[in-house]
Amino acid sequence: TQLLEQSPQFLSIQEGENLTVYCNSSSVFSSLQWYRQEPGEGPVLLVTVVTGGEVKKLKRLTFQFGDARKDSSLHITAAQPGDTGLYLCAGGSNSGYALNFGKGTSLLVTP
Amino acid sequence: GAGVSQSPRYKVAKRGQDVALRCDPISGHVSLFWYQQALGQGPEFLTYFQNEAQLDKSGLPSDRFFAERPEGSVSTLKIQRTQQEDSAVYLCASSYRDSKQFFGPGTRLTVL
Question: A98 — contact with chain B (CB < 8 Å)?
Fold first, then answer.
């Protein structure tokens, strides 16, 4: 199993602050995905990064894939309460179809 | 419907009872996945179907877990003789072949 470690595990910040969460592995991934999961719901795909060094922006969210394709980061600018949720990174497993998830970063943004 | 639906949304079972969890995938999606998400953890893969064929069941934790998709659409995950360690959220996801997976809201199973 290719392990994905996410940090921090928990993060509580105030509205307007910036934050970065990390997803690290000792294995190389062909691609990594970031999901957000809200309480009582399933994960929703935010972005897929494929190329080493790639940077993708989704409004206030910036995703980066490491040059060696072993790690990724998610940076949120000016966090809002609506950003609250569990952020999960996932990579492809050896099977090629199942997803291998990290444990997630639980983010709470207070007004 | 527009998305993946699962039922029931919540299930409480006494230890030793059998439970059946249902997943209605997005119409036309060939691939269907079941994941188990324990409290404070990320989802973990259980099993994979392509149409009605169960191609991978390597993630099923024991022979008490059984999944089927007889007509290549609706799928049922059955857990026999439930144990407390089976308490988790069970997520179903579907995709058109092996592309982006769309997740349902999950069934939260609590075994007392």
Answer: yes
